[in-house]
Amino acid sequence: MSQTPNHLILKAIRQEPVTRTPVWIMRQAGRYLPEYIKLKNEAGGFMNLVKNPDLACEITMQPLRRYSLDSAIVFSDILIVAEVIGIDLDFIEKKGPVFDKTIRTDKDFEILNKSYDINNLDYVFHTIKKLKNELNGKKPLIGFIGSPWTVATYLIEGNSSKEFTNVQKLLKTNKPLLHNILNLLTDISIDYLNKQIESGIDISMIFDTWGSLLNNESYEELSLRYINKIKHSISKTGIPLIYYVRNTESKINQIKNLDIDVLGIDATAKIGDIKRAVGNRFALQGNLDIEVLRSDEKAMIKSVNDLLEDYNSPVGHIFNLGSGITPDIDPGKVKLLIDIIRDISPSYNVK
Ligand code: CP3
Known about the structure:
single chain, alpha/beta, 7-stranded parallel sheet, two-stranded antiparallel ribbon, globular, binds coproporphyrinogen III
């Protein structure tokens, strides 16, 4: 059970009436904030922030000091789980994640550490405990994992290549290996997410960024099946689950049947279309195009109004972007956006 059950986001998740639409922003802590850049430079890189609970806690809090956000999200990354099976992860400026090994053959899989210890990620659990103290029940805390499929695509490619050549090759030539990788990552995800819940997160989220690379049949077999297993493992805790996938609309008929609490939508979909497709099966999160943060105030107000109007229901909506915020965005524009949502959304909610 969440320790912040009456917060706006938790109410929106349960599709209960709210007086305004709650809001948080994917990657709300990060490179568009000068105070983040400063700490990252002092610490000597992203991983040094993530692995230090004091710094990870501080970075998580930075956007909450600037803006009236309705939730915090643990500062970490979906790829750190690689380290528990013996694959080292580094983040290179302007290049992104890089691993010291890839998994492309049965032999690559054999040498992984399958008797992993989830406590190797202790720093995340410490960060969560610190944050719970710091937040003191004032704001809920979101914890997250990557979907086994999405994490697997990075482990197979070894970096964030967008061609997925090696993933495509494995799909054609070695499905059993894919399932071995996915089963291992699912076991780890179950342990990791449950430990985050024990440490105090109020909401859980699964990022399945690359789920929509798969055709419908493979999406069911290689992604959704494992998501269901993870969801089942946390069901008894009462902690709600947000599921995010890019190109949400292309997979909506399958997602419709998932046992989730919230669907995170990317900016290519119209939220009204998704709402009509899913009814009130679950709440929706999203999905403002980041482009709006590059426009002027008048255009921003119009875009927020259009989105709320398109959603067209007083319950079950969490405002967010359709993707993570990028380093080029002006922090002043983020403040403006959040103020606009606070001003406008009450007229779409229950008075
Ligand atoms: O949202 C938050 O504030 C919480 C922290 C968070 C990060 N990554 C921090 C981060 C979360 C939830 C993620 C999720 C994540 N990480 C995803 C799924 C969501 C999505 O963006 O599709 C994926 C695919 C990753 C893997 C990853 N991490 C990549 C490909 C990159 C490099 C490209 C990029 O966007 O920067 C990262 C780096 C990363 N993760 C940064 C941050 C703040 C930037 C680090 C830096 O250089 O300072």
